[in-house]
Specification:
two-stranded antiparallel sheet, 13 helices, elongated, disordered C terminus, DNA-binding
Length: 357
DNA sequence: TAGGCCATCTGGTCCT
DNA sequence: AGGACCAGATGGCCTA
């Protein structure tokens, strides 16, 4: 009967395997014998391999046996093994139907626990994604990239605390992106409104400059101001469709650290904890837009309050799938106007407050 | 189509 | 015995 299933091409291999095996056992059950497969293997037992270990490893395949038959079969096995010395240790008990059933249930329970465990792990990873730079609901960082970015982020924050200096944005991004894949690098750089290619070029030129074990972030010659725009102030730019992304506003840390505090980080506009010291005002058009396309677009807006008067106060950047393609380089357009805290204690407090918000 | 990522199953090991 | 944890295997899905 089950061979019909076996011949069904649409069946997945696992089912086919099971069908094949079950068919054999079905026939032999009718004859009240153990699987011929098992019998064949008995005859060809390798040295050092016991019947017990065989039936253990093939627990699902061995349907033979009522409890009372166990003794006989085990004796028979000993005979089959000839003069080989008895193995020490607990006897491997033959799988009975009842034992198989228990084993099956145990396995199912273990699978369920393992699933739950992995789900817990994944939800923890999701939480981690929310607190590292570049959080996006639509384009999640992979697990490994999340961990790498988190490590870099911790390192970057530690450097900020250690040096007590306001980090250079480029160096900051370089630190964040260290060891990340190109797509993730583009993503992170995009989140920070940096031209990924630009910064990677610098990274190549300045290899080791920012990442040495004793390095601290170089001070950039110009300052950078972060400020959060209201939704009406925000102007938008559209990502390439392959890079659909929504991002949180990342001004929180910078603002809280460097005194340009945004008044309302807990706005309903943002549905998760704010993460990194990025200075991007992400405005989610999807929150107001019912169009199905909203999932594919996200909007950035930046505010350069210290830009020269010839520049607009807002700037739109267009990101492409290979990184930023706007040709607008952050180093050229961003104006830095961060106010360094000279008092370290408040800085720690603010950072602490940020993490406990 | 290859490669990356992921979920799931599974058996092994360690611990309680 | 059973649970937690781990790593390997496998197959599905997606994207370049």
């Amino acid at each position: 009967m089950l061979t019909r299933l076996f011949s069904e091409p649409s069946l997945v291999p696992e089912v086919q395997k099971f069908a094949s095996w079950a068919d054999e056992c079905e026939e032999e059950d009718d004859e009240d014998e153990s699987c011929s497969d098992t019998e064949e293997r008995k005859g060809s037992l390798q040295e050092g391999q016991t019947e017990g270990s065989l039936s253990e490893s093939k627990e699902e395949g061995d349907l033979a046996g009522e409890e009372e038959e166990e003794e006989e079969e085990e004796e028979g096995t000993e005979e089959a093994e000839g003069e080989r010395p008895k193995k020490r240790g607990p006897k491997k008990r033959k799988m009975t139907k009842a034992r198989m059933e228990r084993s099956k249930i145990r396995r199912q329970k273990a699978n369920a626990r393992e699933r739950n465990r992995m789900h817990d792990l994944n939800s923890a990873l999701d939480n981690l994604r929310k607190v590292v730079p570049c959080y996006s609901k639509t384009q999640k960082l992979s697990k490994i990239e999340t961990l790498r970015l988190a490590k870099n982020y911790i390192w970057a924050l530690s450097e900020i605390l250690r040096s007590g200096k306001r980090p250079d944005l480029v160096a900051y991004v370089q630190t964040l992106c260290k060891g990340l894949s190109q797509p993730t690098t583009n993503l992170v750089a995009g989140c920070l409104q940096l031209n990924a290619r630009n910064f990677l070029t610098e990274q190549g030129q300045d290899a080791g400059r920012y990442h040495g074990p004793n390095s601290s972030f170089a001070m950039h010659p110009y300052t950078f101001q972060c400020s959060r725009l209201s939704s009406t102030q925000c102007q938008s730019s559209t990502m390439g469709s392959s890079h659909s992304l929504r991002t949180h506003a990342y001004c929180a840390t910078y603002d809280s650290l460097y005194g340009n505090a945004s008044p309302d980080y807990t706005s309903s506009e943002y549905d998760g904890p704010l993460s990194p010291p990025l200075c991007i005002n992400a405005n989610f058009s999807l929150k107001q837009d019912s169009s199905p396309d909203h999932e594919k677009n996200y909007h950035y807006s930046m505010h350069y309050s210290a830009l020269p008067s010839s520049r607009p106060s807002g700037h739109n950047l267009v990101f492409g799938s290979s990184g930023m393609r706007s040709g607008v380089h952050a180093e050229n357009i961003l104006s830095y106007d961060m106010h360094l805290h000279h008092d370290r204690a408040p800085m720690y407090e603010e950072l602490n407050a940020f993490f406990h918000n």
